[in-house]
Amino acid sequence: MAKSTNKVGRPTKYRKEYCQIAINLGKEGKGRAHLASTLGVSVSSLREWEQEYEEFSTAMDLNYTHSEAWWLNHALNRAPESDKMIMFMLQHKYKYTATTDVNITNKPTEVDVNFLDLQSKPNE
């Protein structure tokens, strides 16, 4: 008896237009979890699509690159009150490290503190 070529199971929700949505969301600083939520699927579905569809894998690489650039841009042009949030995103999502420098001058009332000094990512 010949093997059936029909796939068994639920049909995929994947659509080629998801590639552009992934890229656009990355340009807004939004990554994998936000994309999954927008499309109404799980993050594991996104990972499966990356394995199965080369164009989606490429789009997810671009999503990551654009999202990282968005966060870096915000770090460089940041408002002081947003330092903690930006540091958290860059350290945890993109694996940057931060250092704290404290320079005390001869005048006891002058203290210069730099809370966000981005270092290069490891293994790059």
The domain tally reads 2
Indicate the overall shape. elongated
- Determine the structural class based on helices, strands and strand pairing: alpha+beta
Number of helices: 5
Task: Tell me, rounded to a whole number, the average pLDDT.
Answer: 78
Q: In whole angstroms, how far apart are the ends?
A: 54 Å
Classify the beta-strand content into a percent band. 5-15%
Radius of gyration equals: 21 Å
> Could you name the ranges where pLDDT drops below 50 across 5 or more consecutive residues?
none
Element-level helix/strand string: HHHHHEE
Tell me the helix content.
40-55%
Strand neighbour order, sheet with most strands: 1-2
The main sheet comes to: 2 strands, antiparallel
Oligomeric composition of the shown chains: single chain
How many β-strands, per DSSP? 2
Task: Provide a descriptive summary of the structure in words.
- By secondary structure, the protein is α+β, with helices and mostly antiparallel strands.
- It folds into two domains: 15-77, no CATH class; 80-124, no CATH class.
- It has helices at 17-26, 32-39, 43-52, 54-76, 83-92; strands at residues 98-104, 111-118.
- The protein has a two-stranded antiparallel sheet.
- The longest helix is centred in the middle third of the chain and has 23 residues, at 54-76.
- The protein is elongated.
- The mean pLDDT is 78.
